[in-house]
Amino acid sequence: MFNQFRNKFPLDDSKWIEYTDCFKRLEVPSKTILLKEGEISKKLFIIEKGCIRVWFNNNGKDLTTQFFFENQSVASIESFMKKSPSPASIETIESSILWWISKNDLDKILSEIKEIPQLRDRFIDMIFERTFDYMKYFVSFIKDSPTQRYLSLIEERPQILQRIPQHYIASYLGITTVHLSRIKSKLLHRK
Amino acid sequence: MFNQFRNKFPLDDSKWIEYTDCFKRLEVPSKTILLKEGEISKKLFIIEKGCIRVWFNNNGKDLTTQFFFENQSVASIESFMKKSPSPASIETIESSILWWISKNDLDKILSEIKEIPQLRDRFIDMIFERTFDYMKYFVSFIKDSPTQRYLSLIEERPQILQRIPQHYIASYLGITTVHLSRIKSKLLHRK
DNA sequence: AAGATTTGATAACAAATGTTATCGTCTGTG
DNA sequence: CACAGACGATAACATTTGTTATCAAATCTT
């Protein structure tokens, strides 16, 4: 699982083994809740196989804000960094194989690798990228109609359309399943 | 203008003078465009007096995403950091007194102060805070109705209600001025 | 102070989106 | 194989929000 990263990091072997030993394997069925809204996020997950969504509960309706697939890492970042209650839940969509690391272990690793300047800068860049991603989401949500957002999904993240059940996609687009059905049917008949 | 920060930074006097000399004063009337959509952001502004909005042009309609007041700093961050065309414009709302620093000068200062660990960590924290702010905006937009968003504005940022013309507020809430009028009138008559 | 511009309210109508209910299909499980 | 539950389409109706137009008040300019 981690060998793909092995030669990207200038660490000696003993450190490398110490770090990778911090990760534990976890196999779970679909619809497993990995973090519940209100809890404090103490684990960072990496997906070996499967997919995961992050969602908010709003008066019983759920609102999905992100999907994650193989090789991506998932946590409720704000909760994870600040030890505050998570505003969102994290849940598997398919049955999945995951690896997780505790916040304690990750903190230790991060404080050590921050001394390596190129990794430190890389880390800062990553945080910026995350910020810019949120900006993009935000702007698209308030600028574009649901139809436009659906079309961009088709263009930019076809994997979502293929693997994710439609009611989660509707929730991701911020609309009801009924409305998503209407959008699809309109697009079909116009062609 | 900068003396309020003087004792927060462990810099010797010559460095302090060198750094503050990088800032230039600028006095502008209202509705001055400081950065145009599509341009590359090369200046970071700090507001001594006045207020500023950041907005996107979407098919002629504008969509305001942020307001800034006294003592806040403003730039199209993504454009500023990555030297990419800015997706947003920056414009004064009131006539304003500003201080600005060029990206070159700021980069020089940042690379120097990053060597001071506590400032470096502070800088990383600031970036995280910015990320969390965007998350909050984003979530509120997709979770709450315009009426709820308007009520939160009253609660959390009354300054905006007092100083900002209503059509910019409507644009900030993602609705038309007509609809904002309706919301206000409904709230009034219900009380 | 007169006229122009900006700002905000309101009404009438149109378009987008939500709600509820029904039905058919698919899929997994016993 | 049968059946329950999940998933998706569609219709009818309700609600929200946008569009266009008009008017009044406030503010700015000269």
UniProtKB/TrEMBL annotation, chains A, B:
Annotated PROSITE patterns: CNMP_BINDING_3
CDD domains in the record: CAP_ED
Superkingdom of source: Bacteria
InterPro entries from the UniProt entry: cNMP-bd_dom (IPR000595), cNMP-bd_dom_sf (IPR018490), RmlC-like_jellyroll (IPR014710)
Pfam families xrefs: cNMP_binding (PF00027)
Limits of the Cyclic nucleotide-binding domain: 11-110
Signal peptide coordinates: none
The name this protein goes by in its record: Cyclic nucleotide-binding protein
